[in-house]
Design goal:
The chain is an alpha/beta fold. The chain folds into three domains: 178 residues, 3-Layer(aba) Sandwich (Rossmann fold); 172 residues, Rossmann fold, CATH 3.40.50; 75 residues, ANL, C-terminal domain (GMP Synthetase, Chain A, domain 3). 26% of the residues lie in helices and 29% in strands. The protein has a nine-stranded mixed β-sheet. The protein has a six-stranded mixed β-sheet with strand order 4-3-5-10-9-6, covered by helices on one side. The protein has a four-stranded antiparallel β-sheet with strand order 20-21-23-24, with no helix packed on it. It is globular, with a radius of gyration of 22 Å.
Length: 488
């Protein structure tokens, strides 16, 4: 069995003598004990095994932040299969590239979401647009007691030098999907670093408003909760009123969300202050503005802690004092940070430059294994050197106390709703429209710090902003679609 299931087994075993086994999952008005969770996981593992899923198989989970995501992840971990959490909005070119990179043996999602993607039986169907063979569908079965289907495919297992347990997807410097391979040692290190720095233990409750397929949701939610046997509070709908109520009633000890959500909570006139002053409210995914931090503290009487983490590195730094939102603070336990040039030569305190991270939680294996072009001895963005330092692609500076301040990116990757967006991909999509000569995309922030993509277009013929936005909506994930189109 893999580490995720071992954590579950340990948590259920420790609570064997406690009444009810302790709360493992809280989903709205539903509570699941550790004993109940393990029982459900074991049943689901037997069902997946009957579908043909076994050790070493890569299985994609295109689900929201629902209990079944946790149950299926743990069931796959028990079978020694590789868990591949995927964005439920993934489609078209991105989904095709993810499937080609991972050699998925199975995919769990909502019914009928895979009709145009897999060829039923026989030889693989050709994907003319991307010149890749589509997967051969072996079977499609309904998972008992749910509305989910498990589709299995005839696939050759992917062989890596690493032994993956979880593969999370983000974007590489060119805007293409990149799978970040998490091995046992990385998962163990991430769980330990979060627990030590944030003081999370078994009686704690952890809640994340981020989706579990993101680094924010997976690491600061599922991973640390399982590692410490803490209760995990889930919600697949980002309802601000429910989050505010969770804080007011002390329903969680650690709450993670984006600055946009915290800003919306602070604007609620009926929101009540937190009962406990020891609640850790962690803001990550986007820059935290001083105005949002101040408004939230005035409303809920607890500080917002600015945090920095990524798929490739896991948790990196956090401002535990919550007094200076412009910085992401000091490194997590076991993590090292330095600012160095593109070759890895360290720069003096206060100087701005590429941010490099080293630690046991930093990943070194990616799929597909693309070789990136470099100049001379330059180390590519998202890759590491021989000493274990990974070049994150972020630009920042370190003060004399070792506190990190982020200043931007080296490439055109930005974050919208906590997820990466390649501005070049948005521009390419707009330029594919018949009457567009050129396009330029940029990121814009509103008064509360929420980010959105704005496009400026030069026309070759008649077209309207609505036509261009509709065109992007057909080919891009929702968070990548421009919120506004301007004409040059």
């Amino acid at each position: 069995m893999s580490l995720l299931y071992e954590w579950l087994d340990n948590a259920a075993g420790v609570r064997r003598g406690t009444m009810g086994g302790g709360q493992a999952l809280i989903y709205r008005d539903t509570y699941l004990s550790w004993h109940g969770l393990r029982h459900r996981v074991n049943r689901r593992a037997n069902e997946l095994k009957g579908f043909g899923v076994g050790a070493g198989d890569w299985v994609g989970l295109m689900l929201g932040s629902v209990p079944e995501f946790v149950v299926l992840s743990l069931a796959l971990s028990k079978l020694d299969a590789v868990v591949v959490p995927l964005d439920p909005t993934l489609c078209g070119r991105d989904l095709s590239m993810v499937f080609a990179a991972t050699h998925l043996r199975a995919l769990v999602n909502r019914p009928n979401a895979l009709i145009a993607f897999a060829a039923p039986g026989g030889a693989p169907a050709a994907d003319a647009k991307h010149d890749r063979p589509r997967a051969v569908l072996e079977s499609r079965r309904r998972i008992s007691g749910t509305l989910l289907t498990c589709s299995t495919f005839e696939r050759t297992p992917l062989k890596l030098h690493a032994v993956p347990e979880v593969v999370l997807f983000t974007l590489d410097a060119g805007g293409d999907p990149k799978g970040v391979v998490r091995e046992r040692r990385q998962l163990k290190s991430i769980g330990a670093a979060l627990a030590s720095t944030l003081d999370i233990d078994a009686p704690s409750r952890v809640s994340t408003a981020a989706a579990l397929h993101t680094s924010q949701g997976f690491d600061l939610g599922l991973c640390v909760a399982l590692a410490q046997g803490a209760g995990l509070v889930l919600d697949d709908e980002l309802v601000v009123a429910r989050l505010a109520k969770l804080l007011a009633e002390q329903g969680a000890d650690v709450v993670t969300a984006t600055p946009t959500l915290f800003a919306a909570m602070a604007r609620m006139p009926t929101a009540k202050p937190c009962r406990s002053r020891h609640v850790r409210c962690i803001s990550s995914g986007e820059p935290l503005s001083p105005a949002v931090a101040r408004a939230f503290r005035e409303r809920f009487k607890v500080p917002l802690l600015s945090c920095y983490q990524s798929m490739e590195t896991g948790p990196v730094a956090i401002d535990l004092g919550g007094k200076n939102p412009t910085t992401v603070g000091l490194p997590f336990a076991g993590v090292e940070i330095r600012v160095a040039d593109r070759q890895g030569t360290e720069m003096p305190a206060g100087a701005q430059g590429p941010v490099w991270v080293r630690g046991a939680g930093v990943s070194s294996t990616f799929v597909p294994p693309v070789r990136l072009r470099t100049r001379g001895s330059e180390i590519p963005i998202g890759r590491g050197d021989s000493d274990g330092w990974l070049r994150t692609g972020d630009i920042g500076s370190l003060d004399r106390d070792g506190r990190l301040t982020l200043c931007g990116r080296e490439d055109d990757l930005v974050k919208v709703e906590g997820r990466r967006v390649a501005l070049g991909e948005v521009e390419g999509c707009l330029e594919a429209f018949a009457n567009v000569r050129s396009a330029e995309a940029r990121l814009e922030y509103d008064e509360v710090g929420a980010s959105r993509v704005i496009a400026r277009v030069q026309r070759d013929g008649p077209c309207t902003p609505k036509q261009l936005i509709d065109h992007c909506a057909k080919h891009l994930a929702p968070h990548k679609v421009p919120a506004r189109v301007e004409f040059a």
